[in-house]
């Protein structure tokens, strides 16, 4: 008994278990699955549409079900891990992720797939946040912890950057179901490994979970996203859509009131009085709504217009995604010499200009027409991905760093979900409008929205086959042109979003120093003392 108490006390003071690198391996593999399942699905959308006969709105929900639940629980997951046990929450998240991956892989209806993806997003949030808590508990502060977090971040980068290629490979060689089923044996093995290698830890003084704030925030985000996705189908001025938009506004207002009155809020609204923190959070939001949202729609262009297979489309995205893996170290070095406002706004400016470069593509454009824009946007995003979190922490008091990091992540992932919804809605609307203006004989206006939904989902060939033979060639050309019109519209909107984010950051962040600059300046003064 005395030895056990001594061991727990020693761990609380920072002594480390002998198997700490096995713990790093466990949490890194677990969190590798989180970004992978955000990006891997994009390449499978046309196959999911043809297999389950989904609408374009269904496909958006399949993606955003994951994103919404993931975003909603980011702020609460840390408190849950501290209160109920970090290993326990990691295992709960892993179990949810594994079981829902199996359900996704076996799904026979769009509703089943969407619900399973929503629970999978909850599992992903628990995995991500509890893994950070486990690493902080396991590794001493200083170079050892920095190295551990470096490995963890590298694995996350691999999952995000190679997700589209892995998805394309699985869809081409097996089927879309294997982008989910592949998680099952990994999850089962990792549960056993975690139970044998990772010790439990918790904070007895952890705050209580803010369930009321969590409920209002989640409901507001869901209502807004639902309105954006279903607006074309139900009508933007319909009572249902206007009611959802009003409900989102009321729920957000209620969330603000609840957080203001909490003694330990999960979202400290006073942080929004810090202009530099607001600027950094807006940058994170613009990054999610532009760069990450477009990763969903770029494969559709390659498959719908250029006729590429899922694997080919995934390979074509590598110039955009690989810089996410290789550029963060360069971003860290630049952060030591450049003001934060220049690095962050400059990186986001590169993302915006990259999308501007992609604007104007057509059916005759080779994939190489995207290459300069891909490289420019990918390098820009890679330079600032890690530095967004570093600057968000640096501009706040140390005791607020954890909450600041969580809020910035919530801005990024929440904007990602809303960006997917808004860009998809505009894509479908422009495709429908272009079809109506084509004045094809036999194409009634009432059917244009339904046809546009199928075309946007990547089922151009399936739509053509439903038409009389005499209309097929003319409709195929008109449908492809309408998709190109819609695609160029959302590329332009993504560019505008990125450029506005760059401007907001440049104006608000001022001359704040990044975390790496602060550490660099503290070393000489520490040595002198």
Automatic annotation (TrEMBL):
Presence of the UniProt keyword Transport in the record: yes
Protein location: Cell membrane
Domain Major facilitator superfamily (MFS) profile, residue spans: 23-513
Principal subcellular localization: membrane
Membrane topology: Multi-pass membrane protein
Gene Ontology molecular function, alphabetical: transmembrane transporter activity
TM region(s), chain numbering: 21-45, 65-82, 89-113, 119-136, 148-170, 176-196, 208-229, 235-257, 277-298, 310-330, 342-361, 373-396, 489-509
Keywords: Cell membrane, Membrane, Transmembrane, Transmembrane helix, Transport
GO cellular component: membrane; plasma membrane
Pfam families: MFS_1
PANTHER family assigned to the protein according to its UniProt record, in alphabetical order: EXPORT PROTEIN, MAJOR FACILITATOR SUPERFAMILY MULTIDRUG TRANSPORTER MFSC
Protein name: Gll2822 protein
Species this chain originates from: Gloeobacter violaceus (strain ATCC 29082 / PCC 7421)
Lineage: Bacteria, Bacillati, Cyanobacteriota, Cyanophyceae, Gloeobacterales
